[in-house]
Amino acid sequence: MLQIKNELAILSQDEEDNEPVEVEGEITKIKEYLNGVCDLNQKQLSDELVDAVIARITPMENGAFKWYIQGEEYDTEISFDESKYVLYDRFTLNFEEAKKYRKAFGNFIRAVQWKDLIVEVYIRQD
Q1: Which of the four pLDDT bands, split at 50, 70 and 90, describes residue 49?
Q2: How far apart are CA 75 and CA 81, in angstroms?
């Protein structure tokens, strides 16, 4: 029981030593950064956002694209190991979606100009 009281006293002292931290300024900086790199009114995502989220994009011979999502511990200096990734989702970007996207920016696309894109999304399994 004495040991528990001593540990509680130490923890109480640690709490008294900690001063409140002002985080509003940091939150504002984060919001400004995200608003700058996540402007969805632009025709494409910023390179900064893609670099922050995607470890690698690999085009395949069959026309599909493999997107490898960075994990929390991702380090650009470490060599890429595809075996550490597992397929998370697969989706197709079809003509109708491409047409809507192009139209939103005042452009048009013809069906004969478009080939559906298959995107496979992989995440680290460890």
Answers
A1: confident
A2: 12
